Amino acid sequence: MSGQPRIAMSEKMTRPVVRYRDGEWVRRNDEIATEYALTIYVNDNELATIVCTPSYMEDLVYGFLASEGIIQSVDQVESLQLSRFLGTARVRTKSAITFNQAFYNKRYIASCCGKGRQSFYFQNDAVTAKRVDDAVTLSPDEVFAVIDELDGAATLFQETGGVHMAALCTPEKLLLARTDIGRHNALDKIYGYCLQNGISLRGTAIAFSGRISSEVLLKVSKIGVGIVIARSAPTALAIDMADELGITAIGFVRGRAFNVYSHPWRIVGALQADTEVK
């Protein structure tokens, strides 16, 4: 990857398009999300190449290393050198880090969620996934407020339509939000920021712009958050994992409705639901 030319470091770029609307053709400039390849080295060993949005990349590196079990805390890192021109992040740890070089070396992490990424996660989830026992609760109105906060911070999505977004919230407010072309990257950026700044994750929820895949659910468990809320659907495997890992998964938040798929005790009133007979 180091031999490839690098592009501008903006989150978005302008490209000409030909647009068709209501029977008319118009030439215009459009905002396009930037796709950027970042290669991570740990103690001079090539670990992975992540295709990402070039923002908050230090947070991304710390979050990725922690979620994959390479480090357990930021104190293990002696230095992190980012070269935006070369597209590299070189991490030096205070002591030797042992990882399966044959598996990790030259692993390419795509911005989409294809076979390579899923295999990468399932190889490590037994070690890095953890059960979440946080007793945080939300009312239905707070669920809607969390999604409203997510939408309010979605500037890059509104401009390009080409990124995912994740936000860390309490029942009272949005703490931080991150965007990326890779949904897992947006979560890693949140995790990395929290690790570096000593932010407690108890009493928080994660709001997410896309569907809740097994990959997203595993990432939430690694971060240690008990509630994940999304506008779209979860997968069946994600629900199974949420049941096992103690995470409340909420999907299809639209209008004044949503579905709770696992651990409904965290949502006020959910355990009083009547059985619908059709």
Write the layout of secondary structure elements.
Blueprint: E1 12-21, E2 24-33, E3 36-42, E4 45-52, H1 57-67, E5 77-83, E6 88-93, H2 101-104, E7 107-109, H3 115-128, H4 140-152, H5 155-160, E8 164-169, E9 174-180, H6 183-197, E10 205-208, H7 214-223, E11 227-230, H8 236-245, E12 248-254, E13 257-260
CATH superfamily of the largest domain: Cytidine Deaminase, domain 2
**How many domain units?**
2
- CATH class of the largest domain, anyone? Alpha Beta
Secondary structure tally, helices: 8
From the alpha-carbon coordinates, what is the Rg to the nearest angstrom?
20 Å
Biggest beta sheet attributes: 6 strands, mixed
**CATH architecture grouping of the largest domain:** 3-Layer(aba) Sandwich
| Percent helix | 25-40%
Strand content: 25-35%
Order of helices and strands: EEEEHEEHEHHHEEHEHEHEE
Mean pLDDT across all residues, rounded? 84
